[in-house]
Amino acid sequence: MNEKFSIAGKVAVITGAGGVLGGNVAKSFVEQGAKVVALDIRQEQLDQRIAELEALNGGEVMGLLCNVLDLDSIRKMTDAVVARWGCIDILVNIAGGNMPGATLQPAQPIFDMKIEDWNKVTNLNMNGTVYPSIVVGEVMARQKKGAIVNISSMAALQAMTNVPGYSAAKAAVTNFTQWLAMDMALKYGDGIRVNAVAPGFFIGDQNRAVLLNPDGSLTERSHKVLANTPMRRFGDITELNGAIQFLCSDAASFITGVNLPVDGGFSMFSGV
């Protein structure tokens, strides 16, 4: 085993761990020997996730209710983690997502979009990444070491129909990732790195109705996605684990400010 890729023993805070993506990453981290702090705002989902993680062999897990849009809530979480394990080595900002009111139908004009839902989506995805990064980043600044990984999107890289709020927020996450990477390195040294991954198309709870018809067949949007994905398939959620672990590991010690696509080639394919 190449120890440079290992995250064993590292303390990893994962926001949105009650969701599909967050739970998948949390499970992978526990299996790789990390000490995982699973965060969510929903008690039921958090309890279920912690039970699953604790059932894994030898997993060290801590579950905390945390609102990523409340600085006091994040500070209390951070204090509790440091009190138990003495440090925070990794922060993976996964809390986010879209909502129907901020998603347009194909023929629907942007003028019909619900502004309150636009505000919710942009706030959750942008500030829900910025706020934990600031609070946990301060701990890392004192330690002079740490790795932050944010979740960007294909929608941040090119204009994508129907999802204006989500796209704008993820574009902001990508830019903030670069800015924070620069600021941390210049002011606190090369031990702190900030990167992002940009997932391609994965079928999950939030986009299932957009990509699959009730009978399980592919929607028109799915056909367009696959036509522009050289691998001609959707990703499996577990295929994000390796990229995220790599960016958190010592193997990526000279990598900061990148937005790594995990997309089957979607972001680079011209279709001609």
> Under CATH, the topology of the largest domain is which?
Rossmann fold
Distance separating the two termini: 41 Å
Total discrete domains: 2
Helix content: 40-55%
Q: Give the number of DSSP strands.
A: 7
- Described by its quaternary structure, the protein is single chain
Tell me which CATH architecture of the largest domain applies here.
3-Layer(aba) Sandwich
The number of helical elements comes to 8
Order of helices and strands: EHEHEHEHEHEHHHE
CATH superfamily of the largest domain: NAD(P)-binding Rossmann-like Domain
Question: pLDDT average, as an integer?
Answer: 94
Radius of gyration: 18 Å
Strand content: 5-15%
As residue ranges, the low-confidence spans are none
Query: What spatial order of strands do you see in the largest sheet?
Result: 3-2-1-4-5-6-7
> In CATH's first tier, which class of the largest domain applies?
Alpha Beta
Largest sheet, in brief, is: 7 strands, parallel
In short, what is this structure?
This protein is an alpha/beta fold. The protein is built from eight helices and seven strands, in the order βαβαβαβαβαβαααβ.
What's the topology here?
Blueprint: E1 11-14, H1 20-31, E2 35-40, H2 43-54, E3 60-65, H3 71-85, E4 90-93, H4 115-143, E5 146-151, H5 164-188, E6 192-199, H6 208-211, H7 220-227, H8 241-248, E7 259-262
Write a structural description.
The protein is of the alpha/beta class. The protein has two domains: 219 residues, Rossmann fold (3-Layer(aba) Sandwich), CATH 3.40.50.720; 31 residues, no CATH class. It is 42% helix and 14% strand. A seven-stranded parallel sheet has the order 3-2-1-4-5-6-7, with helices on both faces. β5, α5 and β6 form a beta-alpha-beta unit. The longest helix is centred in the middle third of the chain and has 29 residues.
